[in-house]
């Protein structure tokens, strides 16, 4: 089993220690670094290139949203999981747009956190139920200028639904009996046609359009 490398960014030492103590009990997760500020976190991510970054949002200096944006620049392969006490709209939406794959609140159980880390490693988005509800509400109003799924081909629709279920490109390719290269092409077309930035936004879009059940995303 491959080890998932995790970096912690939180300005509270006690929080970082608690996270480290739990995660180091997991046989497949290794905490490789800690940062107490966004600027420090960006530098550390550049040096360590961790698989997963657990990101607080409210910190001195640059906040978690900007830190997420910068980390996705210096270490594009790192998956950022927001772990915060705040579910305000003005934090949720900017964090996801900045590149966070998952958005969790600090009241989740340790087991749920470990699940989210493993899911992120598989490119699966995990949203706290309260956050998922906000996203559904935010996107429920129709937008007259929004491109609809009618613009997608039947095969692109198949790929969209499987992305929303959390499948990787390889899993989608195996399911549809196509190549990974073809899968990537379909995904690129979906992102372009629907004006979406990444797989997380594809999953949110599919949920909003009720193309997959809310409880069928994992």
TrEMBL record:
Annotated SMART domains: HTH_LUXR, REC
Domain spans labelled Response regulatory: 5-121
Source superkingdom: Bacteria
UniProt entry tagged with the keyword Transferase: no
Domain HTH luxR-type per the UniProt entry, residue ranges: 145-210
Entry keyword annotation includes DNA-binding: yes
PROSITE patterns: HTH_LUXR_2 (PS50043), RESPONSE_REGULATORY (PS50110)
PANTHER family: TRANSCRIPTIONAL REGULATORY PROTEIN YDFI (PTHR43214:SF37), TWO-COMPONENT RESPONSE REGULATOR (PTHR43214)
Name of the protein in question: Two component transcriptional regulator, LuxR family
């Amino acid at each position: 089993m491959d080890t998932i490398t995790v970096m912690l960014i939180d300005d509270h030492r006690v929080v970082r220690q608690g996270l480290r103590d739990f995660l180091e009990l997991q046989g497949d997760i290794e905490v490789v670094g800690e940062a107490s500020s966004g600027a420090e976190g960006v530098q550390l991510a550049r040096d360590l290139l961790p698989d997963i970054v657990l990101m607080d949002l409210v910190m001195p200096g640059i906040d978690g949203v900007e830190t997420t944006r910068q980390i996705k620049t210096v270490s594009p392969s790192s998956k950022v999981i927001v772990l915060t006490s705040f579910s305000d709209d003005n934090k949720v939406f900017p964090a996801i747009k900045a590149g966070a794959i998952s958005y969790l609140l600090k009241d989740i159980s340790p087991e749920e956190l470990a699940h989210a880390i493993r899911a992120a490693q598989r490119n699966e988005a995990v949203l706290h139920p309260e956050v998922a509800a906000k996203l559904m509400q935010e996107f429920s109003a129709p937008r007259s200028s929004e491109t609809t799924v009618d613009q997608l081909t039947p095969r692109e629709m198949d790929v969209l639904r499987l992305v929303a279920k959390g499948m990787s490109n390889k899993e989608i390719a195996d399911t549809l009996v196509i190549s990974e290269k073809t899968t990537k092409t379909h995904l690129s077309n979906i992102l372009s046609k629907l004006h979406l930035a990444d797989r997380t936004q594809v999953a949110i879009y599919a949920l909003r359009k009720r193309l997959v059940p809310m409880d069928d995303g994992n």
